[in-house]
Amino acid sequence: MDKKGKSKNSKQSNSGPKEKNNASKGKKNSKKQKTNKKNDEAVGDGASVADLSDSAESRNLAYVITHVDHRTFGEFLSQPTPIIFKILSYLPHGDLQNCARVCRNWQSLVPTILEKRFSYEWFYAGSSATDLKCLPERFAKFSQEIKIAPQLILGFEPTEAKFPTCSTCLALNRPDAEKQKGQKQERCRCIKNDFEKIYQSAFPKTPAGSFRITSYGVISSYLGQFHTLYTTEDNDFNQTTLLFPNCEGLEISSHLFRQVELNNLTKHALTKILTGHDHAVKAVLIYVTDSSLSNYSLMNNGYSLAKHTASILRQKQKTPAVSMGGGVVKKIRDTMKPNVSYQAAMFIFRGAKVSAYSTVIKEKEASEIATTIKNVSEKIKSMPGRKLCFMTECIDRQSLYVSDNMDLVCNLESRTLNRFLPGIPIFGFWSAGEIGFTTHDETLENEEGRVKVAHTFATSFLFLILED
Length: 468
Known about the structure:
By secondary structure, the protein is α+β, with helices and mostly antiparallel strands. It is built from 20 helices and 17 strands. It has helices at residues 2-44, 56-59, 61-66, 73-78, 82-89, 93-99, 104-124, 129-133, 135-145, 150-153, 167-172, 177-180, 221-225, 259-263, 267-274, 291-294, 296-316, 366-382, 398-401, 406-420, and strands at 185-187, 200-202, 211-214, 230-232, 238-242, 251-257, 281-289, 323-329, 331-334, 337-341, 344-350, 354-361, 386-395, 426-430, 434-436, 454-456, 459-467. It has a 5-stranded antiparallel beta sheet with strand order 4-5-3-9-10, with no helix packed on it. Helix 6 (93-99) packs antiparallel against helix 7 (104-124), helix 15 (267-274) crosses helix 17 (296-316) and helix 18 (366-382) runs parallel beside helix 20. The N and C termini lie far apart (120 Å).
């Protein structure tokens, strides 16, 4: 009897800690269920990326893999948790849509991420409420477009090995890119009528008169082809060094304005800069920093710089044909004074044998860009004794067509350029807006409408043409 009693007592005493452990496990499980419910509710309500935790761990998929049991990893990935929402949010449009095929939960997350991404882009671009109402239609249209091969958009054969799939990525990943930055010889290609003759132009190691312009983080495919002409400042922004070609008969003058100088810049002082020269102004390239946009007075001064330039040249010059281009960028610095930041920069192109052409593409369609570059190249090619020596491109078609679907836009622009304007030096910028012209029907012979300046969310081009 005593032994049985002792055994009963021992069982009762051993059952105590087990019940405590079970109780603690139950509390932990209930906490996990509560957190999972909160996460599901957050994602179900369409929580934005900014509302989620912004820790380094949440961005790193390796952290997730190492901290989750591999037996339950598949279940973890299939749950619409905030961290999965965040991981998917960093994907471009094409990869994101492919993720919708993984499971049902991911299929429900993809439209939420895309909807918020589109809403933010259109709000940032300053679109009206009517544009926001068109989001579902634009989303459906874009979904169809990204499924089409970029080669087919421009009429290229998919098997054409002459052009790379993504020239920007190839240029950025080339191992000899760093070696070529310090070379004294910088290749400057000026294509003749036959588009074959190549010229060499020498630049010093640290060229005087070069300027660094920091763009908004997405490098254009044009600039990617000439990878020796830019340096990456940090992970967020791309810093571009402008090295203008040393072509005979082309004269370039630069004028940089600080905040005080821009505020006190009068029309009379600007007239002195633009006039009083042997040769007339043929083209003007203007960049204004984004700090000008944060201050209304500075923004007005920066934008009026382009407007006053156009009006002065129209009144003072005998030949009113002048082309203008430019955009809103992050920083402007002189290479000789790297610690000095400027509010605006103006580059003036003169020369007796110099002509220019500029245009703004308002629409965001692929056919617009291909048609514009094709028409300009055909006109230059048909002119006897003309060559295209320089071209700038400012792009602000929103991340809808650039950062979120880089393959599409890289193929689009680089393939078009390689086919119609092979080897031309291009300086490309991702901008917050363009300063250019609004007319689409400009021709190289028609001088009408070349002083209409507009700040648009589009793509602007400036072509500089030389006579032999």
